[in-house]
Design brief:
Layout lengths: L34 H22 L5 E5 L4 H12 L4 E8 L4 H6 L8 E8 L1 H15 L4 H18 L9 E5 L3 H5 L12 H18 L8 H6 L6 E3 L4 H7 L4 H4 L16 H7 L15 H4 L2 H14 L15 H15 L1
Helix pairs in contact: 1-2, 1-9, 1-11, 2-11, 4-5, 4-13, 13-14
Length: 341
């Protein structure tokens, strides 16, 4: 089955649960055992993926990349740099935890790259959370924490003079963690069949949740509005699925092969090798949590919850909520929900 190619500016996001049966094991496909060969395959696939996105867009369309400080978006930025394609890199973080934006700002050293840091304080995180709740109709933590950067991006795009959906391409590095088990450790010895089977099952399980339409229909449209049809998740495509499911565990996780020193991550090894050959090599070996955490959004929501709990009736009678554990804050909020029936 070939990759779905949607005409610009129709919605380009590929919901692979509609074209791939993730209940069928792909263990027998995982024939690439060497990390370097896997890196070359991933880089070729990424170049083709971004090339096809740009080819379908108007010639003068400006690329906007949701930029983190890790390898996923770093590799996307590196391919854009290879193509001499100017782009705006936008990083959403919080004022209390700006490290993600500071690290991502290194992208501005590339010719044609402009970096924008959207730093949100607690009040802004709370306001965007309320907007996300209203637009999505649910309060699931990870969904709301994913929605906040998209709402901040929408606000940024709306404020740009002369920018509109017909001259804009939005790119994100989302999807690589599913294919390559980002953030995970190898579930066993890398060359054993049982490890390959376990890796394959984990990838397919993640794909069922991540590559569908999610908990809410039209998730992107509810959050990005008129900008949603321009959004491309770089690693969420049929071609990337076909490439990623060829990787054996030994091509996905770092072992004792020589790499730059310094407590380096073992996950997404082949993608890190690929990125190390690009103009954005400084992003190749940087450890990174999911955006919801690395941006400080989870921490900001924790702080906002504590402030809310501290303002409840009689909250400070016996203990100071600002000095309590997160578990006690959760219990306070739960009791308030019970009181409200």
């Amino acid at each position: 089955m070939t990759e779905l190619r949607c005409g610009y500016p129709q919605a380009p996001t590929e919901f692979l649960t509609e074209t791939v049966d993730f209940t069928v094991p792909t263990t027998c496909r995982r024939d690439i055992t060497e990390p370097q060969a896997a890196a070359e395959l991933l880089l070729t696939t990424l170049r083709e993926r971004i090339g096809s996105v740009l080819a379908a867009a108007p010639d003068q369309a400006r690329v906007v990349l949701m930029m983190g400080a890790g390898v996923d978006s770093g590799a996307v930025a590196g391919v854009l740099a290879e193509l001499d394609r100017p782009f705006d890199a936008v990083t959403v973080a919080t004022t209390a935890q700006p490290d993600e934006a500071v690290a991502a700002s290194a992208i501005s050293a590339l010719d044609g790259a402009t970096h924008h840091s959207l730093l949100l304080d607690t009040a802004e995180v709370t306001a965007l959370s309320r907007e996300a709740l209203a637009r999505l109709g649910l309060g699931e933590l990870w969904a709301v924490a994913e929605a906040i950067p998209l709402l901040a991006l929408r606000r940024f795009l709306d404020a740009q003079s002369g920018r509109n959906p017909t001259n804009t391409v939005l790119l994100t590095g989302k999807g690589a963690d599913v294919l390559l088990l980002g953030g995970a450790d190898a579930p066993g010895p890398l060359h054993e069949t049982s490890t390959t089977e376990a890796v394959d099952a984990q990838v397919r399980g993640l794909a069922i949740r991540a590559y569908g339409r999610g908990l809410v229909d039209n998730f992107d449209g509810r959050l990005l509005g008129r900008w949603a049809p321009t959004l491309h998740r770089a690693y969420q495509s049929r071609t990337f699925w076909d490439a990623g499911t060829r990787l054996a565990p030994s091509a996905m996780f770092r072992t004792s092969d020589p790499v730059p020193a310094g407590g380096l991550p073992a996950d997404k090894y082949s993608l890190r090798l690929a990125c190390s050959t690009l103009p954005t090599s400084e992003f190749a070996w940087r450890p990174k949590d999911p955006l919801q955490r690395s941006s400080g959004l989870h921490a900001a929501l924790h702080d906002a919850a504590r402030v809310y709990a501290a303002e409840l009736p009689a909250a400070g009678t016996f203990r100071d909520p600002y000095a309590e554990s997160s578990a006690d804050i959760s219990a306070r909020l739960f009791l308030e929900l019970l009181l409200r029936g």
